[in-house]
Amino acid sequence: MKYIVGNWKSNKTLEESSKWLEQFNKIYKQSNTSKVIVCPSFIHIPLMVNASFSLGLQNLSPFEQGAYTGEVAAEQLAGIVEYALIGHSERREYFQETDSQLKKKVAQARQFDIEPIYCVQSEKTPIPEGVQIIAYEPVEAIGTGNPEDPANCRSVFAKIVKRQPEIKTCLYGGSVKADNAAAFLQEPTIDGVLVGGASLDPVEFAKIVTYASQNQT
Ligand code: PGA
Predict the structure, then answer these.
(1) Does the pLDDT value for residue 161 go beyond 90?
(2) Which atom of ligand 1 lies at the shortest distance from residue 135's CA?
(3) CA 64 – ligand 1 centroid, Å
(4) Is the dihedral of CA 122, 123, 126, 128 positive or negative?
(5) pTM (2 decimals)?
């Protein structure tokens, strides 16, 4: 079973997201050999609650519900989304998220049954307790068209899992496209891919999903 996670980042108007959904639904067929998770902006979530794929957040508050202007708490999304990206390098760089805040986000997610997909930038990135799914995303591979070598992912995953054996699922992200996804999805130690730019195009994203569905057992 391979995970295909789409990270839309801060993209798409409501009109664009409904067009995406319409086009993707024409191509996408659920399969028990792939798990599709789309992480849109918060505004798109109501449109997607009944979709046949899973939903994920790109961010969530480190706090419980309350007087935290501008934040969306895990409890508000409980039962609506199943996953949350936590620790993406863009959050660390542009919003100064620290390891201690990220630890609180993981705790909030887990308290409300939202599974964290914890983004690590290298084998040395600290990973909070309670994380079972990681996404290895070297900064130099994100949005550059220069993906990491799948063999390097294997060695990074081995080191992380040796250190933290509770990590069960290791994804790769960074410049994954329809024409290079196979190299990652064929690698037995890579449990799936986290796709940014290429997930914005429903046809390209569907190609990655279809490949994963047809080439796994
Ligand atoms: P990219 O982004 O696929 O556009 O490189 C991946 C990510 O940042 O999650």
Answers:
(1) yes
(2) 9
(3) 29
(4) positive
(5) 0.97
